[in-house]
Amino acid sequence: MGDGTADELKGRTKEAAGDLTGDKDLKREGKVDRATGTVKDKVGDASDKLKDAIRRD
């Protein structure tokens, strides 16, 4: 499991906990963690594609 996936899962957990407890700050923090995870995954995918392209040349 990559960093992005871990952040996304952590964010989902925080968001759900914040929703259940009515803690808006925790819910917001969870959304930020989820977004961070998504960005990390996209950057990792782009990096992998770049490495593959370089290896072919």
TrEMBL record:
It holds the Pfam family CsbD. It comes from Solirubrobacter ginsenosidimutans. Belongs to the UPF0337 (CsbD) family. Residues 1-33 are annotated as: Disordered. InterPro entries: CsbD, YjbJ_sf. Residues 3-52 form the CsbD-like domain. Residues 7-33 have a biased composition (Basic and acidic residues). This is CsbD family protein. Gene3D superfamilies: YjbJ.
